[in-house]
Amino acid sequence: MSKNQLSQRLCAWIDQHFDEEVGVLQQLIRIPTDTPPGNNAPHADAVAELVKAWGWNAEKHAVPQQQVADYGMQSVTNLIVRRPYGAGGPTVALNAHGDVVPPGEGWKHDPYGGEIDGGRIYGRAAAVSKSDFASYIFAVRALEALGADLRGALELHFTYDEEFGGLLGPGWLLEQKLTKPDFVIAAGFSYNVVTAHNACLQFEVTVHGKATHGSMPETGHDALQAATAILNAIYAAVPGLKEIRSAIPGISHPTMIVGRIDGGTNTNVVPGKVVLKMDRRMIPEEDPAQVEAGVRKLIEDAVAGLPGIRVEIRRLLLARALRPLPGHEKLVDSLLRNAQEVMGETLTTNGSALYTDARLYGEHGIPVVLFGAGPRTLMESNAKQADENLALEDLKKATKVMALTLLDFVGPQA
User: In 10 A of CB 226, how many CB atoms?
Assistant: First the structure.
């Protein structure tokens, strides 16, 4: 059978089974995986049971409970579904994450309903990234339904620690040497192939002073006043970051924000302790060690000489940048060619200002790109906002593009 005939059969199978695919996505949305609190093992158990219907075995890899608790979550069970074929081909892994941010306020649709309305499916993780559980599963099922002589292997990695950084998700699977694929495609959106993304440093800055009665402020040391000096220094540095430009399309410049402030005892008490949590995004060209040293110095200099003030700076997260690795161009070329066939347009290939757990594959030397089911822009899907949704047509297109790309990698040799 010719490659063109196989491609047509793949797309026809996906059309015929699309209602089933939507039903699977609805099941996945209806099992909450809010992180925090991060009790995600029940969702993994449900997915493992689901794939049994197709004769697949999902290996359950539970992260030790104490390690999970120390990390700030309740349970993490990562899944690997291995589909070995004949000799002579590569191992391609597809990674999507099941953990999600809590739904928050303002929903008009049930965040755990998987409701269909106007050609769209609504629910938390409809777009990021339970949709790619469905698109990746059905792309593999379509490929296997061909009955063709496949070569190499496919792996489905369903992990549950993207929102906290990925170290207990893909990072844990890789550190435990449970997998080492030749190529990875990780969850993304349908109209852009992401080949690079920013790095991220997050800090917790604790400012210690001395609390005292508000009627005698001179007898204490005001931690909030010192924290204000730190805030002023941080935001004074922000305009200069805009002058540091990335050469990667889609990535502009570094950013720095303070996302949370906690402190004080009461209205009539001079604050004795204030805690700031901050986020410094780095473009791929920056050196994380130099950036971290610079941020620490900025904070320390801001309070130097203030009597009775002590500052602790604790790194919460270092998520390194995703950079293109040799071999990623094979993934990009295949995705672009197949998207042109399915969607009738040439996709963009850009970097992203976001950071993802896909970077962890790159840190292990594995070429990885991001592509999956989603709209043209993050905001269009309300990802991580109220009424997150996905156009069903985009889900179908992404599944077809994925299936055709897998055919390129593990299908019969021409």
Answer: 23
Strand stretches in 52-133, DSSP E: 58-62, 77-84, 86-97, 115-117, 120-122
Return the structure tokens found at 252.
């502009």
| Cα–Cα distances in angstroms (integers) from residue 167 to residues 65, 233, 288, 353, in the given order | 14, 31, 17, 20
Q: Which residues is 273 bridged to in the sheet? A: 208
**pLDDT by residue (tens digit) across 291-329?**
999 999 999 999 999 999 999 999 998 989 999 999 999
Task: Identify each DSSP E strand in 98-138 by its residue range.
Answer: 115-117, 120-122
Gap between the Cα atoms of 78 and 168, Å rounded: 9
**pLDDT tens digits along 129-153:** 999 999 999 999 999 999 999 999 9
Phi–psi pair at 324, nearest 5 degrees = -60, 135
Phi/psi at 290 (5° precision): -65, -40
Quote the radius of gyration of the chain (alpha carbons, Å): 24
